[in-house]
Amino acid sequence: MFICHMNTSPNILLIYTGGTIGMIKDFETGVLVAFNFDELLLKIPELNLLDCIINTVSFSTPIDSSDMNMERWKELGDIINSNYEKYDGFVVLHGSDTMSYTASAISFMFENLAKPIIFTGSQLPIGDLRTDAKENLITALQIAALQQKGKPVITEVGLYFEYKLLRANRTTKINAEHFEAFQSMNYPALVESGVHLKVNTSFLRVVNRRKKMVYHTHFDNNIMILKMFPGINERMLKHIFSSDTIKGVIIETYGSGNTTTKKWFIDIISDTIKKGIPVVNVTQCAGGSVEMGKYNTSMALKKAGVISGKDITTEAAVAKLMYLLGGDLPLKVLKTIYETSLRGEMSEN
Ligand code: ASP
């Protein structure tokens, strides 16, 4: 436990799931492997200077985030849920590779969230001379501890990396090397860190504190992502779509939601929807929105009943589809809910 100075200081729970931030080079192989979480904290004595009380907890086996899955999302969610009343905020250390997926999933798991859950990580391990881990961790903790009139300023799931707090379910990892590894193309930064922390209050999610937080854990991962590309092959697609394990499909389309207009393709999509399987349209562009019906090439999709993902990221689209499928909803209801912003993951028009 790291102690701060005032009795009224916020309590923050720091959760380590794994990732580069807590890794070290294996002396013999040169490969990065996870190491003891307590050692990670010993490397940052500056944490003692923060104006908050920090308790720590770690996954029993920290993982590279490439191994994240629904069970691990639940493990993380359970840690936060069982400590929800005890803490004023949560900071989650997570590998950057799938951080946007996990953080999106966590945003759906916590309905009426009234406390900050801030994800962060780093491109270089904490022990490296030029590490980005210290700044990311220290500022993430400061943001989680921000309070006004005794209440947390941030009441949503955020992702802090390289001087910006972004709405987590709006983020995508865009660079494997740069310290600025994440971007939120369709929503502005919530907090910018310079000499001062600049909170962009008007972009924050507003919480109704009278509503109780509701914790959800149901996910269904029988889904697939189909990325459009010129030359997409009928035989291959027919084969894939004939599988009876598929319960939901996300198509990453061109531009504002366009696909090939070939009859065989449209037939596969509409037959899938007729079987009661939701098909979601998200754009493979980094920014902007799906607008089915804008071009002829997407009109047929709209008529077939394809769900518009609007300006959602693929990461949030995956988490949202798994979350809603877990709720066992009739297709019509799922479509209406999917096209509605639940946690600020898509724009409202
Ligand atoms: N492979 C690592 C992970 O996602 C990379 C990182 O931590 O940034 O766990």
Architecture overview:
It is built from 9 helices and 20 strands. It has 349 residues and is an alpha/beta fold. The strands form 6 sheets. An 8-stranded mixed beta sheet has the order 4-1-5-7-10-11-14-15, with helices on both faces. It has a 4-stranded parallel beta sheet with strand order 17-18-19-20. Strand 2 (23-25) and strand 3 form a beta hairpin. It is globular and about 65 Å long. 42% of the residues are buried. Aspartic acid binds at residues 18-20, 64-66, 95-97, 121. Aspartic acid (ASP) binds next to loops.
Q: Could you report the average pLDDT, rounded to the nearest whole number?
A: 93
Q: Major sheet: order of its strands?
A: 4-1-5-7-10-11-14-15
- Spatial separation of the terminal alpha carbons: 46 Å
Ligand types: aspartic acid
Low confidence ranges: 1-6
Briefly note the structural class of the backbone: alpha/beta
Estimated radius of gyration: 21 Å
- SSE topology string: EEEHEHEHEEHEEEEEEEEEEHEHEHEHH
In short:
The chain is of the alpha/beta class and 349 residues long. The protein is built from nine helices and 20 strands. The chain starts with 10 loop residues before the first strand and ends in an 11-residue tail after the last helix.
Question: What's the arrangement of secondary structure elements?
Answer:
Elements: E1 11-16, E2 23-25, E3 32-34, H1 37-42, E4 53-58, H2 70-82, E5 89-93, H3 99-109, E6 110-111, E7 117-120, H4 133-144, E8 147-148, E9 151-152, E10 157-161, E11 164-167, E12 172-173, E13 182-183, E14 191-193, E15 197-199, E16 214-215, E17 223-227, H5 234-241, E18 248-253, H6 263-274, E19 279-283, H7 296-304, E20 307-308, H8 314-326, H9 331-338
Parallel strand pairs: 1-4, 1-5, 5-7, 7-10, 17-18, 18-19, 19-20
Antiparallel strand pairs: 2-3, 6-16, 8-9, 10-11, 11-14, 12-13, 14-15
Bound molecules: aspartic acid.
